[in-house]
Write a structure and sequence with these properties.
Elements lengths: L9 H14 L2 E2 L2 E2 L4 H10 L10 H19 L2 H14 L5 E5 L2 E6 L7 H18 L6 E3 L8 E3 L14 H18 L1
Antiparallel strand pairs: 1-2, 3-4, 5-6
Length: 186
């Protein structure tokens, strides 16, 4: 829940950021969810509530969700809708307004006792539905840092986000600074 200007509801923006972070845990063969403990850390970092039980089967289900969500970044509107409708049907999404913890009313479409992989799939799908409905799929992008394969969700007002949240913006700034310094000494 960051950012002063909200483009979408809090839960939508949070789910979009979480989906991007989840996808980016698979970094071109570098696995950032290597075990159940790392999945538990991800769940805590992104403040998931409800059933938080994880085991190796659940870890595999979460890993299997990543390429399906990445397809949202890769497809046109029709393909994105196919992915989203498939996820919503598969996981029997039933949107309801709920209020818990520090959150005011927001939408959940799976029960809190559902498996975490189910809730991750449904929460992401519901958030992407908002992007489709508002014709904002252009907010989905890829990190511009050379060699980075991460996805980016640009929720900035001026649509200026170019780099992922894995430090690529800092690496780009350092590279630009070093290039300027080298130019001065040349």
């Amino acid at each position: 829940m960051t950012g002063a200007t909200m483009l979408f509801a809090n839960d939508t923006e949070d789910a979009l950021r979480t989906a991007a972070a989840l996808i980016n845990t698979d970094d071109d063969g570098e696995e950032h969810l290597p075990d159940v403990a790392s999945l538990s850390r991800f769940i805590n970092e992104w403040k998931w509530t409800g059933n938080l039980a994880v085991d190796p089967t659940e870890l595999e289900a979460v890993r299997a969700l990543r390429p399906r969500l990445r397809r949202v970044w890769e497809g046109d509107e029709t393909q994105v809708v196919e992915v989203l409708n498939g996820l919503l049907r598969e996981f029997n999404a039933l949107p309801q307004l709920v209020k818990h913890d520090d959150w005011d009313y927001h939408v959940h479409a799976s029960p809190p006792e559902a498996r975490i992989s189910t809730r991750m799939a449904v929460e992401a799908a519901m958030a992407f539905v908002d992007l489709v409905r508002t014709k904002e799929l252009g907010r989905l992008g890829h990190c511009e840092f050379p060699g980075c394969n991460n996805v980016v969700i640009d929720l900035s007002k001026n649509r200026s986000k170019r780099f992922c949240d894995a430090g690529c913006g800092n690496r780009a700034a350092v590279a630009a600074y070093r290039a300027r310094q080298a130019e001065k000494t040349a």
